[in-house]
Amino acid sequence: MNTNYPLPENIINILEEKKMTHHNSFEELIREGGYVPPSIDLLVDAISALSMGKNILLKGPTGAGKTKFAETLSQLFNQPMFSVNCSVDLDAESLLGFKTLSYEGEKQVIEFIPGPVIHSMKHGNFLYIDEVNMAKPETLPLINGVLDYRRTITNPFTNEIVTAKEGFNVIAAINEGYVGTVPLNEALKNRFVVIEVPYIEGEQLKALIKSNTSLSDETTIDLFIKLSGDLIQAVSQGKLSEDAASIRALLDACDLSVLIPAKRAIQRSIIDKLDEEREREFVKNLTETLF
């Protein structure tokens, strides 16, 4: 697998300080995390920011691998990662935790069950906030103090002041322009270092297909890579929505093509997900040409 490594010496030192497991090479660890970066700069910049205690915002199209990127960073830093999936229903309890009734012996007591924010702060773990711009604008300011230099929050359910343990880091992900999303306010955006995550193409995509799907036929893999490149180009030209070029959907199609014809695999995994008939016909024509 050609991933353009090794990493720079200063980045290796950072990861070794974070107790990277020495029996693994960096390439093995990255493969275990599941994200092969199209540029080493993406990895270096993300590791640098996290090692300095900065929050990072992964920004890019759907299916480009933002969640896998976060999981790979978690793997490299040898840190468990707790996740928050944002939606319009996200509230303080979803972020911070909730109270419930429990028993101590025969005595009934009120117990607080920590949510992902409190848990990751107290244990010094990674916190991943997915689709951060899907949350209502009034919800995320609850954790502004967690995201700035204070790394502190007063838990409204217990009045406990929680300060993040060393090792706590925040990674968020964003897809812009989707239905239900709202622009991030400046106060929130300024708490992050932004890293653009592009689509994976070429040799990196080939390596991903080989390591993450059951497809092994070189000719078919090359056809899928060509299809992906054509879809990405069509998205950049405004002919298709970003959903059409999702790498996640492409990997599903690769997997299905082992058992059913490739054209039908693409139909199920990519074409039928598109809302507009014009887009469905466009991708169908591309598929017919290639396969």
Automatic annotation (TrEMBL):
GO molecular function per UniProt: ATP binding; ATP hydrolysis activity
Gene3D superfamilies, A to Z: P-loop containing nucleotide triphosphate hydrolases
Domain named AAA+ ATPase: residues: 52-201
InterPro entries in the cross-refs: AAA+_ATPase (IPR003593), ATPase_dyneun-rel_AAA (IPR011704), CbbQ/NirQ/NorQ/GpvN (IPR050764), P-loop_NTPase (IPR027417)
Any Pfam family the entry gives: AAA_5
Domain of life of the native organism: Bacteria
PANTHER family in the cross-refs: MAGNESIUM-CHELATASE SUBUNIT CHLD, MOXR FAMILY PROTEIN
Protein name, UniProt field: AAA domain-containing protein
